Amino acid sequence: MSLFSTPFDPARDAALVTGAGNGIGRAIAQALVGEGVRTVFADVSAERVSAATRTSTRPELAVPWVGDLAKPEACDALLAAADAALGQVTHFVHSASPPRREADHALAVDRRTWQEMHAVNLDAGFHLARGLAKRLIAAKRPGSCLFLTSLHAGTPRNLPHYSTAKAGMAMLVKELAKTLGRHDIRVNALVPGAIAAGGFVADASLAKHIPLGRLGEAKDLAPMALTVLSNTLSAYVTGAAFVVDGGLSLTNWFEPPALDE
Ligand SMILES: NC(=O)c1ccc[n+]([C@@H]2O[C@H](COP(=O)([O-])OP(=O)(O)OC[C@H]3O[C@@H](n4cnc5c(N)ncnc54)[C@H](O)[C@@H]3O)[C@@H](O)[C@H]2O)c1
Protein backbone atom coordinates (compact mmCIF):
# COMPACT_ATOMS: atom_id res chain seq x y z
CA MET A 1 0.00 0.00 0.00
CA SER A 2 1.27 3.48 -0.83
CA LEU A 3 2.48 5.47 2.16
CA PHE A 4 0.70 8.57 0.92
CA SER A 5 -2.61 6.99 -0.05
CA THR A 6 -4.38 7.44 3.30
CA PRO A 7 -2.98 10.40 5.25
CA PHE A 8 -6.39 11.00 6.81
CA ASP A 9 -9.48 8.96 7.60
CA PRO A 10 -12.40 11.06 6.33
CA ALA A 11 -14.86 8.85 8.22
CA ARG A 12 -13.31 9.70 11.61
CA ASP A 13 -11.07 12.75 11.18
CA ALA A 14 -12.35 16.32 11.38
CA ALA A 15 -10.41 19.58 11.47
CA LEU A 16 -10.63 23.09 12.84
CA VAL A 17 -8.51 25.78 11.17
CA THR A 18 -8.33 29.35 12.50
CA GLY A 19 -7.44 32.18 10.16
CA ALA A 20 -8.98 30.02 7.42
CA GLY A 21 -10.37 33.05 5.62
CA ASN A 22 -7.08 34.04 4.04
CA GLY A 23 -3.50 33.19 3.23
CA ILE A 24 -1.82 30.19 4.80
CA GLY A 25 -4.82 29.18 6.95
CA ARG A 26 -7.08 29.14 3.91
CA ALA A 27 -4.57 27.11 1.88
CA ILE A 28 -4.33 24.50 4.67
CA ALA A 29 -8.10 24.37 5.30
CA GLN A 30 -8.82 23.97 1.60
CA ALA A 31 -6.14 21.26 1.31
CA LEU A 32 -7.75 19.35 4.20
CA VAL A 33 -11.13 19.56 2.48
CA GLY A 34 -9.39 18.31 -0.67
CA GLU A 35 -8.38 15.21 1.32
CA GLY A 36 -12.05 14.66 2.25
CA VAL A 37 -11.67 15.96 5.82
CA ARG A 38 -14.66 17.89 7.23
CA THR A 39 -13.20 21.21 8.33
CA VAL A 40 -14.38 24.26 10.27
CA PHE A 41 -13.10 27.46 8.62
CA ALA A 42 -12.84 29.98 11.49
CA ASP A 43 -12.04 33.66 10.91
CA VAL A 44 -13.04 37.14 12.05
CA SER A 45 -14.07 38.13 8.52
CA ALA A 46 -17.43 36.80 7.32
CA GLU A 47 -16.63 37.79 3.76
CA ARG A 48 -13.34 35.90 3.73
CA VAL A 49 -14.83 32.78 5.33
CA SER A 50 -17.63 32.74 2.82
CA ALA A 51 -15.22 33.05 -0.12
CA ALA A 52 -12.85 30.41 1.31
CA THR A 53 -15.58 27.81 1.91
CA ARG A 54 -17.27 28.53 -1.42
CA THR A 55 -14.05 28.08 -3.40
CA SER A 56 -13.10 24.82 -1.67
CA THR A 57 -12.99 21.78 -3.91
CA ARG A 58 -15.79 20.21 -1.84
CA PRO A 59 -17.74 23.08 -0.21
CA GLU A 60 -20.09 20.59 1.47
CA LEU A 61 -17.20 19.57 3.77
CA ALA A 62 -16.31 23.19 4.69
CA VAL A 63 -18.10 24.58 7.76
CA PRO A 64 -17.98 28.38 8.17
CA TRP A 65 -17.53 30.05 11.56
CA VAL A 66 -17.14 33.78 12.12
CA GLY A 67 -15.92 35.40 15.35
CA ASP A 68 -13.20 37.46 16.99
CA LEU A 69 -10.72 35.07 18.61
CA ALA A 70 -9.19 37.91 20.64
CA LYS A 71 -12.24 37.37 22.90
CA PRO A 72 -12.19 34.39 25.30
CA GLU A 73 -15.94 33.87 24.92
CA ALA A 74 -15.49 33.55 21.16
CA CYS A 75 -13.00 30.70 21.70
CA ASP A 76 -15.59 28.89 23.85
CA ALA A 77 -18.26 29.54 21.21
CA LEU A 78 -15.98 28.15 18.48
CA LEU A 79 -15.34 24.95 20.44
CA ALA A 80 -19.09 24.49 20.96
CA ALA A 81 -19.83 25.21 17.30
CA ALA A 82 -17.17 22.72 16.17
CA ASP A 83 -18.63 20.06 18.51
CA ALA A 84 -22.09 20.66 17.06
CA ALA A 85 -20.97 20.65 13.43
CA LEU A 86 -18.32 17.90 13.42
CA GLY A 87 -18.61 15.88 16.63
CA GLN A 88 -14.98 15.27 17.58
CA VAL A 89 -12.31 17.59 16.15
CA THR A 90 -9.13 15.53 15.68
CA HIS A 91 -6.89 18.02 13.85
CA PHE A 92 -6.33 21.63 14.85
CA VAL A 93 -4.46 24.37 12.97
CA HIS A 94 -3.94 27.81 14.51
CA SER A 95 -3.13 30.33 11.78
CA ALA A 96 -5.20 33.38 12.81
CA SER A 97 -3.14 36.48 13.53
CA PRO A 98 -3.99 40.19 13.40
CA PRO A 99 -2.38 42.30 10.68
CA ARG A 100 1.16 43.50 11.34
CA ARG A 101 2.00 47.11 10.61
CA GLU A 102 5.59 48.33 10.29
CA ALA A 103 4.65 51.48 12.23
CA ASP A 104 4.07 49.41 15.40
CA HIS A 105 7.70 49.32 16.52
CA ALA A 106 8.80 49.15 20.15
CA LEU A 107 8.36 52.87 20.83
CA ALA A 108 5.01 53.14 19.07
CA VAL A 109 2.89 50.02 19.53
CA ASP A 110 -0.16 50.78 21.69
CA ARG A 111 -1.50 48.63 24.50
CA ARG A 112 -4.56 47.48 22.54
CA THR A 113 -2.51 46.31 19.54
CA TRP A 114 -0.07 44.52 21.86
CA GLN A 115 -2.87 42.75 23.69
CA GLU A 116 -4.79 41.78 20.57
CA MET A 117 -1.69 40.21 18.99
CA HIS A 118 -1.06 38.12 22.10
CA ALA A 119 -4.76 37.32 22.59
CA VAL A 120 -5.26 35.91 19.10
CA ASN A 121 -1.93 34.12 18.65
CA LEU A 122 -1.11 32.88 22.10
CA ASP A 123 -4.21 33.00 24.32
CA ALA A 124 -6.66 31.71 21.71
CA GLY A 125 -4.13 29.10 20.55
CA PHE A 126 -3.73 27.80 24.09
CA HIS A 127 -7.43 27.75 25.02
CA LEU A 128 -8.55 26.18 21.75
CA ALA A 129 -5.83 23.51 21.78
CA ARG A 130 -6.46 22.66 25.43
CA GLY A 131 -10.22 22.55 24.92
CA LEU A 132 -9.85 20.21 21.96
CA ALA A 133 -7.26 18.08 23.80
CA LYS A 134 -9.59 17.59 26.78
CA ARG A 135 -12.29 16.36 24.44
CA LEU A 136 -9.87 13.98 22.68
CA ILE A 137 -8.59 12.60 26.00
CA ALA A 138 -12.16 11.97 27.19
CA ALA A 139 -12.97 10.20 23.92
CA LYS A 140 -9.62 8.28 23.97
CA ARG A 141 -8.86 9.46 20.45
CA PRO A 142 -5.49 10.49 18.93
CA GLY A 143 -5.10 14.04 17.71
CA SER A 144 -2.77 16.49 16.06
CA CYS A 145 -2.24 20.25 16.45
CA LEU A 146 -0.21 22.62 14.31
CA PHE A 147 0.66 26.19 15.29
CA LEU A 148 1.80 28.75 12.73
CA THR A 149 4.77 30.38 14.42
CA SER A 150 7.47 32.44 12.69
CA LEU A 151 11.21 32.79 12.13
CA HIS A 152 10.65 35.85 14.37
CA ALA A 153 9.98 33.61 17.35
CA GLY A 154 13.77 33.60 17.54
CA THR A 155 14.97 36.77 15.83
CA PRO A 156 13.65 40.36 16.05
CA ARG A 157 11.08 41.71 13.59
CA ASN A 158 10.90 45.35 14.79
CA LEU A 159 7.39 44.38 15.92
CA PRO A 160 7.77 43.31 19.57
CA HIS A 161 4.10 42.40 20.05
CA TYR A 162 4.40 39.99 17.11
CA SER A 163 7.80 38.41 17.87
CA THR A 164 6.97 37.90 21.56
CA ALA A 165 3.60 36.35 20.72
CA LYS A 166 5.30 33.94 18.28
CA ALA A 167 8.06 33.13 20.79
CA GLY A 168 5.31 32.30 23.30
CA MET A 169 3.62 30.05 20.77
CA ALA A 170 6.91 28.24 20.07
CA MET A 171 7.19 27.37 23.76
CA LEU A 172 3.47 26.53 23.98
CA VAL A 173 4.03 23.91 21.27
CA LYS A 174 6.73 22.27 23.42
CA GLU A 175 4.68 22.46 26.63
CA LEU A 176 1.61 20.93 25.01
CA ALA A 177 3.63 18.30 23.13
CA LYS A 178 5.23 17.12 26.36
CA THR A 179 1.98 17.08 28.35
CA LEU A 180 -0.26 15.54 25.70
CA GLY A 181 2.09 12.98 24.15
CA ARG A 182 1.00 10.20 26.50
CA HIS A 183 -2.54 10.69 25.20
CA ASP A 184 -1.36 10.31 21.59
CA ILE A 185 -1.97 13.96 20.83
CA ARG A 186 0.88 15.48 18.83
CA VAL A 187 1.65 19.20 18.77
CA ASN A 188 4.02 20.83 16.27
CA ALA A 189 4.93 24.19 14.77
CA LEU A 190 5.02 25.25 11.13
CA VAL A 191 7.48 28.09 10.55
CA PRO A 192 6.89 30.02 7.32
CA GLY A 193 9.50 32.28 5.75
CA ALA A 194 8.49 35.27 3.59
CA ILE A 195 5.11 34.24 2.23
CA ALA A 196 3.23 36.65 -0.01
CA ALA A 197 -0.08 35.76 1.62
CA GLY A 198 -1.87 38.66 3.26
CA GLY A 199 -0.33 39.09 6.68
CA PHE A 200 3.01 40.01 5.17
CA VAL A 201 3.40 42.80 2.62
CA ALA A 202 6.10 41.21 0.53
CA ASP A 203 8.79 43.28 -1.15
CA ALA A 204 9.83 41.38 -4.29
CA SER A 205 13.48 42.44 -3.76
CA LEU A 206 13.58 40.07 -0.78
CA ALA A 207 13.81 37.19 -3.26
CA LYS A 208 17.55 37.77 -3.68
CA HIS A 209 18.08 36.65 -0.05
CA ILE A 210 16.18 33.41 -0.60
CA PRO A 211 18.27 30.47 -1.86
CA LEU A 212 15.34 29.06 -3.82
CA GLY A 213 15.06 32.43 -5.55
CA ARG A 214 11.47 33.44 -4.89
CA LEU A 215 9.04 34.51 -2.21
CA GLY A 216 6.79 31.80 -0.89
CA GLU A 217 3.08 31.42 -1.61
CA ALA A 218 0.42 30.23 0.80
CA LYS A 219 0.09 27.01 -1.19
CA ASP A 220 3.78 26.22 -0.49
CA LEU A 221 2.83 25.60 3.16
CA ALA A 222 -0.06 23.18 2.69
CA PRO A 223 1.84 19.97 1.77
CA MET A 224 4.13 20.18 4.82
CA ALA A 225 1.20 21.19 7.05
CA LEU A 226 -0.83 18.15 6.02
CA THR A 227 2.18 15.84 6.32
CA VAL A 228 2.83 16.93 9.90
CA LEU A 229 -0.88 16.90 10.78
CA SER A 230 -1.35 13.37 9.45
CA ASN A 231 -1.32 10.72 12.17
CA THR A 232 -0.20 8.10 9.67
CA LEU A 233 2.64 10.07 8.04
CA SER A 234 3.94 11.74 11.22
CA ALA A 235 2.89 9.39 14.03
CA TYR A 236 6.25 9.74 15.83
CA VAL A 237 6.64 13.52 15.40
CA THR A 238 5.82 15.91 18.23
CA GLY A 239 7.23 19.11 19.72
CA ALA A 240 9.01 19.84 16.44
CA ALA A 241 9.20 22.98 14.30
CA PHE A 242 9.16 22.68 10.51
CA VAL A 243 10.69 25.59 8.61
CA VAL A 244 9.20 26.19 5.14
CA ASP A 245 11.10 29.24 3.91
CA GLY A 246 12.91 28.44 0.66
CA GLY A 247 16.13 28.70 2.66
CA LEU A 248 15.58 32.32 3.82
CA SER A 249 16.80 31.56 7.34
CA LEU A 250 20.21 30.50 5.92
CA THR A 251 20.88 34.13 5.02
CA ASN A 252 23.69 35.82 6.96
CA TRP A 253 26.56 38.23 6.30
CA PHE A 254 28.22 35.83 3.83
CA GLU A 255 26.96 35.89 0.26
CA PRO A 256 26.76 32.45 -1.42
CA PRO A 257 29.92 31.62 -3.46
CA ALA A 258 30.12 32.83 -7.07
CA LEU A 259 29.86 29.72 -9.25
CA ASP A 260 31.30 29.33 -12.75
CA GLU A 261 28.38 28.18 -14.84
N1 LIG B 1 2.87 35.41 5.55
C1 LIG B 1 4.06 35.22 6.09
O1 LIG B 1 5.09 35.54 5.49
C2 LIG B 1 4.19 34.58 7.45
C3 LIG B 1 5.48 34.39 7.96
C4 LIG B 1 5.63 33.82 9.23
C5 LIG B 1 4.49 33.46 9.96
N2 LIG B 1 3.26 33.64 9.43
C6 LIG B 1 2.11 33.26 10.25
O2 LIG B 1 1.24 32.44 9.50
C7 LIG B 1 -0.12 32.71 9.88
C8 LIG B 1 -0.90 33.09 8.64
O3 LIG B 1 -0.27 34.20 8.01
P1 LIG B 1 -0.90 34.84 6.68
O4 LIG B 1 0.15 35.67 6.06
O5 LIG B 1 -1.59 33.79 5.90
O6 LIG B 1 -1.97 35.85 7.36
P2 LIG B 1 -3.31 36.49 6.78
O7 LIG B 1 -3.38 37.87 7.35
O8 LIG B 1 -3.38 36.34 5.30
O9 LIG B 1 -4.43 35.58 7.44
C9 LIG B 1 -4.69 35.65 8.80
C10 LIG B 1 -6.18 35.46 8.99
O10 LIG B 1 -6.44 35.58 10.40
C11 LIG B 1 -7.67 36.27 10.53
N3 LIG B 1 -7.75 36.93 11.82
C12 LIG B 1 -7.10 38.06 12.21
N4 LIG B 1 -7.50 38.43 13.43
C13 LIG B 1 -8.42 37.50 13.83
C14 LIG B 1 -9.22 37.37 15.00
N5 LIG B 1 -9.17 38.28 15.98
N6 LIG B 1 -10.05 36.32 15.09
C15 LIG B 1 -10.14 35.42 14.07
N7 LIG B 1 -9.43 35.52 12.93
C16 LIG B 1 -8.57 36.56 12.82
C17 LIG B 1 -7.67 37.29 9.38
O11 LIG B 1 -8.98 37.74 9.06
C18 LIG B 1 -7.02 36.51 8.26
O12 LIG B 1 -7.98 35.89 7.42
C19 LIG B 1 -0.06 33.82 10.91
O13 LIG B 1 -0.11 33.26 12.19
C20 LIG B 1 1.28 34.46 10.65
O14 LIG B 1 1.80 35.10 11.79
C21 LIG B 1 3.08 34.20 8.20
From TrEMBL:
<comment type="similarity">
    <text>Belongs to the short-chain dehydrogenases/reductases (SDR) family.</text>
</comment>
<dbReference type="Pfam" id="PF13561">
    <property type="entry name" value="adh_short_C2"/>
</dbReference>
<dbReference type="InterPro" id="IPR002347">
    <property type="entry name" value="SDR_fam"/>
</dbReference>
<dbReference type="InterPro" id="IPR036291">
    <property type="entry name" value="NAD(P)-bd_dom_sf"/>
</dbReference>
<protein>
    <submittedName>
        <fullName>SDR family oxidoreductase</fullName>
    </submittedName>
</protein>
<dbReference type="GO" id="GO:0030497">
    <property type="term" value="P:fatty acid elongation"/>
</dbReference>
<dbReference type="GO" id="GO:0016616">
    <property type="term" value="F:oxidoreductase activity, acting on the CH-OH group of donors, NAD or NADP as acceptor"/>
</dbReference>
